[in-house]
Amino acid sequence: METKSIYRLIPSFSxxxxxxxxxxxxxxxxxxxxxxxxxxxxxxxxxKGNFNLDDFDIFDRIGNGAFSPDELFRFGAxxxxxxxxxxxxxxxxxxxxPVFRFGAKMMFLEAVRKxxxxxxxxxxxxxxxxxxxxxxxxxxxxxxxxxxxCLIIPGIIIACRLVFTPxxxxxxxxxxxxxxxxxxxxxxxxxxxIFLMGLMTFFICIAGLICLFxxxxxxxxxxxxxxxxxxxxVLIEKGMYEAEAA
Length: 246
What we know:
The protein is about 75% helix and about 0% strand. The chain is mostly helical. The chain is built from 13 helices and no strands. It folds into 2 domains: about 15-45 and about 100-235, no CATH class; about 55-90, no CATH class.
């Protein structure tokens, strides 16, 4: 019979990362597969073309009148193709990837709640709650971007206060505005904890890189487990979720 650790569900820096590590080890294979699938789904966003104007000596040749009509047509076709591919990549990033990322967060939350992470969460957003997921992702990104433009610090504050928005969309089924407002309310008093946890992710990822390829997966799994633990701990603290009796 499978037994799992008793999780310390306290909304603090040490408890969240400590619980996150236990959650990761208790559900290692499932969560590892989740991160692996996210990596595969992100491959289209990491592909870059090798199109370079310098390869064609275009400016020199224009000055010398050395362009033939056929070369001009091919160059124009390449430019159009590059623009179309860029547009497709943008639409993929805005309309497809958020569904997988939000679904993955829900799987990590299920693991924190000692439920079996359901892989259907990765695609369930396409069948239900799709518009809320896409709009919530766009809203958070826009608000953080505006905050960063305003001297960076407001962007960091907004990122910390809206960190629970994806969980609230998936877990509570809230619309983007209500999810952002509720995240702002829930994170009140936990801003520094979230900031320190976010800062810690840098050092965890560096450690993962030092451990080469596999270490990166461990780092990402641990970080996502920790933040899911923090969200669940805050819900318990606010009386929005009944804690399991130890």
